[in-house]
Design goal:
41% of the residues lie in helices and 21% in strands. The protein has 345 residues and is α+β, with helices and mostly antiparallel strands. The strands form 2 sheets. Strands 2-3-1-4-5 form a 5-stranded mixed beta sheet. Strands 6, 7, 8, 9 and 10 form a 5-stranded antiparallel beta sheet that branches. Strand 7 and strand 8 form a beta hairpin.
Length: 345
């Protein structure tokens, strides 16, 4: 069986709001640890049961427990209960666990389970579990694909499973049609890959009360891009796109993604794109409770190409950034911070 473990991590660092007439308090800097920083310690708890653990930042992991079931003589439900007890006892973090014959079904079971519980989906229950679910519940089916399938009357997983393979391939293409045909029948050929390279990095800033000040939101975004840029450069990676999620006071969210002109880990380029995404939302008087930013499409920096420029300011900015990284590595992450964030202190 495969387990999908979603941890209920502590809240993100808070960007406090200043009271009227008081100086603006600092927005958390690159030194502040977000929820994603707790994930490595939680993965070590899972590693005590099986080495087949794949991290899914920021707050989840896939665990292949087939070997652990044979070794300990426990079933998936008991292993899941041990994981929940250990993470709560050793790290103070509860989790929701879905168990299924493959990663897709394990994820779907975790999404169905109530928070802080375990839902085990046996092979005999797969057909009943999938019947009636919307097609968007399947991995690989986004809003655009779901709209296309619904226009042909394929609005549920069981209807998708009953459709001929050739029909699906004509609608969405040969490869995608074959994958949809298999997944609608509960088949997922992906495997749990231990120590897999992260596909994205993320960070989050929350506010203790409804935030209306656009300057404070921009400082939070600057803090996030500085953090992500430093982490990317520290791991020798670049990202191809950014995804911004804004969380409002009524708990609704807005998410927008935009690709970079070229893959980079250069903080000013990340900041410019984050500002552009934020401005495109047109949040005039929106009451914002938090913002999160994810760097996606990660690739090794040595494999990325960069357009050469004759702009001396660009070269100067990159040299300053490299020097700042060396200073942070030697004296700590708060040794060098952008002036905008330092002025807020």
């Amino acid at each position: 069986m495969i387990l999908y473990v979603r941890f209920h991590l502590p809240p993100a660092p808070t960007a406090p709001s200043a009271s009227a007439g008081a100086s603006a308090p600092p927005v958390p800097s690159v030194a502040d640890a977000g929820p994603e920083a707790a994930l490595p310690a939680l993965l070590s708890v899972l590693g005590g049961l099986t080495p087949a653990v794949q991290a899914l930042p920021p707050d989840a992991a896939l665990v292949d427990v087939r070997g652990a079931e044979r070794y300990f003589g426990w079933n998936a439900a008991r292993l899941a209960s041990v994981i929940r007890v250990r993470t709560l006892a050793h790290r103070g973090v509860d989790c929701t666990i879905g168990a299924g014959p493959n990663p897709m079904l394990a994820r779907m079971a975790a999404r169905t389970a109530r928070p802080g519980t375990t839902l085990v989906l046996s092979p005999d229950e797969v057909t009943e579990f999938l019947t009636g679910k919307p097609v968007v519940a399947l991995d690989g089916v986004g809003p655009a694909t779901a709209r296309t399938l619904c226009s042909y009357g394929l609005d549920s997983v069981d209807r998708l499973a009953a459709a001929p393979l050739a029909t699906l391939q004509r609608i969405v293409g040969a490869r995608a049609g074959r994958e949809l045909h298999e997944r609608a029948r509960g088949t997922d050929r992906t495997a749990v890959v231990p120590n897999a390279a992260a596909r994205s990095l993320g960070g989050e800033r929350s506010f203790p009360r409804d935030e209306l000040d656009p300057d404070r939101l921009r400082r939070a975004l600057l803090s996030l891009t500085e953090e992500l840029g430093a982490r990317l450069r520290g791991t020798g990676q670049v990202c191809g796109s950014l995804t911004l999620t804004v969380r409002y006071a009524d708990r609704s969210t807005t998410t927008r993604s935009r690709a970079l002109r070229e893959s980079t880990a250069h903080s000013p380029a990340l900041t410019a794109l984050a500002y552009a995404i934020h401005e495109s939302l047109g949040l005039q008087r929106a009451r914002v409770r938090g913002v999160s930013l994810r760097a996606e499409g990660l690739t090794p920096a040595e494999l990325a190409s960069r357009q050469l420029t004759f702009d001396p300011a660009d070269g100067r900015s990159r040299r300053i950034e490299a020097a700042a990284d060396r200073a942070r590595a030697r004296f700590g992450p708060t040794a060098v911070v952008p002036g905008t964030l330092a002025d807020a202190a």
